[in-house]
Fold this protein.
Amino acid sequence: MSEASRSDEVERWRLPLSSARVETPDKGDASGFWRRRKAAAQQLKPARTEPELRPSVPLPRQEPALAPVKPAKATKEKAKSKRLPASRRSLWQSPLTRRILVLNIMALLVPVLGLLYLPTYRDSLLQSELELLKTEGSLFSGALAASGVATGPLGEEKLVPETSRQTIRRLVDVSKTRARLFTPDGTMVADSFLLSGPGGIVTITPLPPLDPNESLVWKWVAATYDWVFDRLPSSRILQPYQEAAVQNAADYQEVVKAMGGEAMTFVRDAGKGKMILSAAVPVQRYRQVLGALLLTKPGDDIEATLRDTRLTILGVSGIALGVTVLLSLYLASTIALPIHRLADAADRVRRDKGRQKTIPDLSARGDEIGDLSGALRDMTEAVWRRMDAIEGFAADVAHEIKNPLTSLRSAVETVARVEDPTQQKKLMSIILDDVQRLDRLISDISDASRIDAEMSRAEAAPVKLRDLVLAVADIHAATGRDSAPQIRTQLPEGGSLSVLGTEGRLGQVVRNLVANAISFSPPQGVILLAARRVGRHIQLTVEDEGPGIPPDKLGAIFERFYSERPKGEKFGTHSGLGLSISKQIVEAYGGSLRADNRVDAQGRILGARFTVTLLVA
């Protein structure tokens, strides 16, 4: 396109904008200003045309537009935003607090529930009561055999009912135990709960003792206890206790057993969680069984003992539960709240643009949370340093790329105006050099930017430094010119000099240091590669016979794009990233790279020395 046509095209695109230009009204011609503005608006407004009549054709059906689906990332961000900060989150809202409480309470409830069950303790109490009842029955039967037995006309012995009833009544006055006496034919002849009087038979029912110190609270606790434990399933199935209107020895199997001369105990269910304990012993005189004595008593003492024991356990457990809850809350507050503080601080660091927000320092705690706080602080500082390094690297890259681009632009603009072939050839040579310089610079920049990613993915392995050094020396001897510096090696015999790293990257370090030494060495100079072991490290030194390094630049030479080349070297041959990349690789493997000068006894500089220190594999 010619210049005229290009200008016409530009003017054609500028026309609507100039037509829509807003003018400032003069004080004296306001109406004229508005007329001109209206006219300009009419010019910009598209002309209305009358609709053209067309045959009616059905339009294609349009599907309703679907609502845009929100990405999963937005959902995650929304979920994160709903999380309350630590200052607005209560201790009870922490899942960690709830887990600590549940675990500690469960650890307390398991042994408490086992103690409340008390099967062994209950059985021991029951067995003790039965043995006591059996012993009491043996004493009563001996008293009956001594005082309530009469001898018949034929010399036979039998129990006297009236005497036996009186004896039984006097015996049970103290023990409050019910005693029933059965004859060998199964007839009940005496019952301590039945009295004969002028009006007939009187039934005696013992009343429970009154406790004047029993409070309403204790009655409510006891009633609640009885209501709960009456509804719990029992591990023992007992035979129900029943009394016939006319009792017989056959109604009680322990009495039948006692008629055979053997004592027996039995436990029956009285309903509502109550028990009836019984013991039947034979009434014997000279080994002759004259009858059977049945002693029965309710198991209220056992239930009362169990209730007191369980209530004591519940009381102690309640105190332990309160202490457990308080200690759990304290433990949760020392764990959950600091973690919430660290999480909220990390969120604030992520959201805020500046660097005013920092991770709280909890390292004074001396525990794992303190270690986590220190690790987060170090990680945050490392991230900021990495960001600073990336920003600085981006600025340096832009600056370094801008120089060859400026030279390239000047050469391209000049070559179009120069008609001299010689001058054009020089300019084309400059353009070619700048393009090569850009290509070399971009390659080195790409290599430097990939190092961190490769170092994070690659695993360090043993690398034989001896083979690496010898390979670099052999390659230089095979490809170097006659005037190039010579490489000599000084390696200990009988050792592989294994170090931790990757062979490719460590080889790049050696090649960069050798290339740097070659560029500064005089023709036919000597470059010495020496390695030796020092403790748990291996040191590799690269020495040349060049002009050395200015003392004030010993640290600056490892900066990115630093370039101080020897005189006579073509400009742009090196990008200034070789030593920086080498130092970055060595430090990634836990080593160090430093530079100094070789001097003689008079202090004259004999050349430069680079020392690489790496860990022994």
About this structure: The longest strand covers residues 274-285. The two ends are 68 Å apart (CA to CA). Residues 1-34, 40-82 have pLDDT under 50 and may be disordered. Residues 300-351 form the longest helix (52 residues).
